[in-house]
Structure prediction request, 152 residues.
Amino acid sequence: MSKMTLALAGVVGLTLAGCASAPWKPTRAAIEIAPAVCADFQVSLYFERDEARITREARSVLNSARAMARGCGVQKARVVGLADAVGAADVNMALSRRRAEAVTRALGKAGFAQVEFDTMVVGDAGAMTGGGASAPLRRRADIFFDLATPAR
Prediction:
């Protein structure tokens, strides 16, 4: 045997010996998947100014919400449409309604079709701070997911 073959055999032997003397023995509990943690959560979908069209980013957020709810029972999804303080109050209320309706439809397409939806629109209510400044990030719809652990 050459020195190279002996060195290679020694490395392989040490490697295998190291595997055999692992500090812990794998158990079934170590590889079982933990049950889903079914805690209520909220996501927000943002819109362009004066728009109620679901963006690509919003679809990504909905896919993430579906992943977060996986393994849980979704009891209800509450959708709240909002608008900023730019423009007339009645126009902002209608825009909030269109946003909430668009989100509800998108939720159905994202895998939440069997979920009970509760929609609410607030228009530009609360869009101005007490000092008269316009509150940022109001071009959105908030979704509150009420989850329950499914019976096994």
Notes: The two ends are 62 Å apart (CA to CA). DSSP finds four helices and four strands in the chain. The CA atoms of residues 13 and 19 lie 10 Å apart.
